[in-house]
Amino acid sequence: MSPDSLSASPSAAARTPSDLKWLLNERAALEGQAQLASERQSTLERQVARLSLELQEASAELTLTLVAWTIEWLRFFELWLVDGEWRGGGRHPEPQASPPP
């Protein structure tokens, strides 16, 4: 098969202006889809970055509140185990009198 026979294939020779118009429309559609995909990716990247910042802030807030409270509570608990006196404050139920035998 010679290179000349490839360029003169029937499909290439049989192309009409409507085929060219269709091809240009397809190309424009694909370019539009590529643009949309790029915009969606940019939006997604912004959302991921925002979520990452929010998670970092939430993590810092948890560290400052929940973890600190847990450490303090465990310290009071350990002291209570040693001497039986609760120093952590809060409300405690009053001991009930034991029923007579």
| DSSP strand count | 0
Low-pLDDT segments, ≥5 res: 1-10
Task: Give the overall average pLDDT.
Answer: 79
What sequence of helices (H) and strands (E) makes up the elements?
HHH
Q: Can you give the helix content as a percent range?
A: over 70%
Give the percentage of residues in beta strands. Answer: under 5%
Computed Rg: 37 Å
Number of H- or I-type helical stretches: 3
**Basic shape:** rod-shaped
Largest sheet: none
Global structural class: mainly alpha
Amino- and carboxy-terminal Cα gap: 113 Å
Explain what the structure shows:
Helices cover 75% and strands 0% of the residues. It has helices at 3-7, 10-13, 17-83. The chain has a domain at 17-83. The protein has 101 residues and is mainly alpha-helical. It contains 3 helices and no strands.
List keywords for this structure.
101 residues, mainly alpha, rod-shaped
List the helices and strands and how they pair.
Elements: H1 3-7, H2 10-13, H3 17-83
Concise structural overview:
The model is unreliable at 1-10 (pLDDT under 50).
